[in-house]
TrEMBL record:
It comes from Paenibacillus radicis (ex Xue et al. 2023). InterPro entries: DUF6171. This is DUF6171 family protein.
Length: 87
């Protein structure tokens, strides 16, 4: 069987730097006027993502495709985990 190359989670292109995460978040604030969650809330959410089966090695949620570093910081976002959202 022929190898197809790295999976999405192993691809270099899916890994983003903290600077890019910050820039994407700022773009959402500027263009969509999103409000940020307080630091304690986003930290708690991120810890739940880190132990979730929906968390991918690329830093995205397999249920919504969002970067969890961004989704957890947006005040009005919720967790898309089926039936029992984690936050
Ligand atoms: S399902 Fe919820 S807790 Fe799990 S990775 Fe996605 S956003 Fe995070």
């Amino acid at each position: 069987m022929k190898r197809q190359g790295p999976c999405k989670d192993c691809s270099e292109t899916i890994h983003v730097t903290p600077e890019k995460i910050k820039a994407m978040l700022q773009m959402l604030i500027d263009s969509r006027h999103v409000e940020l969650a307080d630091e304690a809330t986003s930290t708690r959410r991120l810890a739940q993502c880190a132990s979730c089966t929906g968390y991918t090695l690329g830093g995205t949620c397999k249920y919504c495709g969002c970067f969890v570093q961004i989704r957890t910081k947006i005040k009005d976002k919720g967790c898309p985990y089926p039936l029992t959202p984690k936050w």
